[in-house]
Amino acid sequence: MEPILNVKNLTMNFGGLKALDTVNLTVEKGQIAALIGPNGAGKTTFFNCITGIYEPSEGLVEITPPGKPTQKLNGLKTNYVTERGLARTFQNIRLFEGMTVLENVMIGRHCRLKSGIIKAMLRTSSQKDEEKQAVYDSYEILEKIGLDQYVDEMAVNLPYGAQRRLEIARALATDPFLLLLDEPAAGMNPQETKELDELIVWLRDNENVSILLIEHDMKLVMSLSDNIHVVDYGKKIAEGTPEEVKSNPEVIKAYLGDESEDA
Amino acid sequence: MVTKKEIKQSFFIALWFMVLTFPLMVIKVNTIKNIVVFRWTNLIWVGIVGFLASLIWNYFLRMKDEKKKADTKDNIPIVHRLLQNEKFRIPFLAAIGIFALVYPFVFPMYHTSIMISALVYVMLGLGLNIVVGLAGLLDLGYVAFYAVGAYAYALLNLHFGISFWVVLPIAALLGTIFGTLLGYPVLRLRGDYLAIVTLGFGEIIRIVLENWDELGNGPRGIGNIPSPSFFGHQFNQHNSVIYIYFIVIALVLLTIFFVNRLENSRIGRAWIALRDDEIACQAMGIDKFKTKLTAFALGATWAALGGVVFAAKTSFINPMSFTIWESITILCVVVIGGMGSAIGVIAGALVLILLPEYLRAVAEYRMLVFGALQVVVMVFKPEGLIQGVRKIYKFKKVEE
Amino acid sequence: MRKLNILLGVAIAGIAGFFGIKEIIADPVYFLELVLGGLTRGSIYALIALGYTMVYGIIQLINFAHGEIYMIGAMTALIVASVLGLWGWNSGVIVFLAFAFAILYSCAYGFTVEKIAYKPLRNAPRLSALISAIGMSLFLQNYVMLAQTPEFMPFESLIPDFQFWEPFAHIITAVEMSIIVTTVIVMILLGMLIKFTKIGKAMRATAQDKVMASLVGINVNRVISTTFVVGSATAAIGGVLIACHVGQVNFFIGFLAGIKAFIAAVLGGIGSVPGAVLGSLVLGISESMFTGYFWSEYEDVFAFTILVIILIFRPSGILGKDETSKV
Ligand SMILES: Nc1ncnc2c1ncn2[C@@H]1O[C@H](COP(=O)(O)OP(=O)(O)OP(=O)(O)O)[C@@H](O)[C@H]1O
Ligand SMILES: [Mg+2]
Fold first, then answer.
1. pTM for this one?
2. Is residue B400 part of a domain?
3. Residue of B nearest to A127 (CA)
4. Domain that residue B91 falls in
5. B295-310 as b/e, with b when 16 or more CB fall inside 10 Å?
6. Among A10, A160, A175, B350, fewest CB within 10 Å belongs to which?
7. Is there a domain that residue B340 lies in?
């Protein structure tokens, strides 16, 4: 078992509100892990803290990219976190609406490309090759995710489910070793959810990425996850396999306490 | 089309405007001679204009809403369609090329001179377009870098006798350095603070120039700036205007060429993405600060180049050429022409600069109209006169 | 970083203090004059800064046209006072009517500007609204210039040199005193409006969360309009007072005053009403000191430098809170 993400005592205060309270969490290589909890439990805040969008009040975030030494992520800016191999999607879809689907994915390639201003102005052959390669790679990713039919569409014009998948494609384009998916199935119909389920497993098996996902769709979570972490009011209350979590009294209480929320 | 309700509403709005503008439009006091004049005709005009404007305003607002609902297919501007069409592109560009080529020989010098001013604005507009249009950074102190270029030429020439062609790259470099130096602290700020700080910086440069006599003679400025030479040959006045005209044309072409390449590169994509959504951009591994800084510094570079040409053309500069109005005019060129659209900016510069030159009668109203246009464009057509069209990246399966 | 900031602040204050004390001992009356002059200046900034800070608090927009509202207030007062003066009205009535019309018209302009230039852009990118605001500012300046005159117009002070104030007049004039007193009264009234009235509560709620506010039945459009109107009213008062103080107005006075007031608002912590007042006083007094003891021609440079420094080291201002925007 190789841990690739290791979070210790993560705490996030917003004024008086403790959105996260000493949360510990580990994701292992090749795992599909899930982070669940009622609305407002602090799941998205957790993602924001480890990706450097928020600066956590306390705690340690460490990653161990495959084949590389362990390193601390605390205090790193978001773009460096991405560069080190942690890519994420957003709960409220944040695509570049004025760009085509292909270009959205090309933006994801940005941190893996090198040519700067001078090369771009002179359009050197290395720059041209790189651009060509970027188009090629991006298209390939779209094919894998099953979005190649939309390649020239504007991102805004895509159906909702496809937009969620495009978020995944874009994140994948940054060559991550760990994908953080924030409610990837939100707003999808059962058919789309099923396809998403297959896609996530396929990604894990073929793309060498591990996955940590936030999700409210319990059926999806239970069928997908190797390991589930449960948070409530910023505190981690349980962890384990789907079976263990399902029968955990604390978890049941957390969910039943808030009746609008269930599997 | 126009309902009774709208007419009634417009009537009341007209009344409102008549009341609103009454003290300023109708009464005119001369506090020195102690006379008051009532200009009642103005009241009638305000009423009529207010009524019509309100009708038109409402009509367009409604159109805008309907358009949004109907989600019309991407309406590409005619210019772009002409340019995309193989059959038209060559003749179209050739016509423009020939016109530009013969222009200074056909028209009197006065017109060439005005055209040079307009073309300098094209350059400045294209430069600012990188900053505002592509990267979405509102820079209200753009004129500061323009001043850097102009003073660089004037001073380097005055003290060291350095020629136009040598100063050109030096000024560009100075522009980049100044852009980076200013950008470094301020680009970390939230977007709207940037506007105020850059505005402040523009004013600081002007105030310093006005008060620092040893540097550039203060308000009296620097005169006798030589026009560019041609391999050591100095033209007479008439020919040198024509010469500068072609230099500017060349610089404009160069600008278009480079900006176009930049726009369709890794950096250009990052600028546009950053304008749309900073958070998502950073999550894609784009360094927000560095990317903004490149846009800001590049814009400054072009402003400095424009400044050199300006100094060479007018042969006299003083701080009055670098006021906030200049920055606002350049901003108007970009915003009204079309943010992010090179063709839009060119059209914007030509229309906004040439029109007031030729219609002297309306020149007085120039800034009034600019202001109103900015509001109207933002409300009804945020993409400007001529919308930019982005390259669509194509994947060709055959090649690998 | 934080420690460094504090250290830097203490060092600067120390050096300034050292020189300051020497100067003060040399000529204490001059120092007092500078403080009072700064207080006057700061009061005017405060009256304008309130509008910026309230509008920013509610719709996160720098209302570039706010300086012009202030200018229109001063202009309207000038016109009303001149006309009535020529008609030979009683001067007390003139003062009252000039203030009343100035406030009324500034409010009307503020209201109209919001409806035309900002309301249609409520959901547009922030850059659009900002450009629209700049356009509005440009338009109003030129509108006043064309409708009236580009020249400065002499403004006869509406405030008499009160007899009872004679003994103190060499340190602070009656006009300056009136400015400070009026400002204090306006601040108290405004504070009460925000704290205790229904609309004040609605304003605070809207500033916190527009969507939530509209869900609990607050008419957000009305609140925004009210904010513009209230801000315009205080700006108008500032406009009339400064015109009395300086003795002349033209179409351009709003530009610099507006920017300075905005700087004051940022200095105090934008969005915060007490912050705007505090920031204004700090800016006014330090500007007064700077011009009094150092270079007067670099007065504006000084203000902008303060802005840049505060934005870099403490972007949330003196009283503002650090906020993490929600993602
Ligand atoms: N920037 C912020 N400032 C203040 N409070 C915040 C901020 N971001 C999040 N919060 C608060 O932190 C708590 C946790 O929010 P978070 O978005 O992490 O919940 P979540 O578990 O993702 O919920 P959901 O399932 O609804 O997405 C909430 O009470 C939220 O209001
Ligand atoms: Mg969430």
1. 0.87
2. no
3. B265
4. 78-380
5. bbbbbbbbbbbbbbbb
6. A160
7. yes
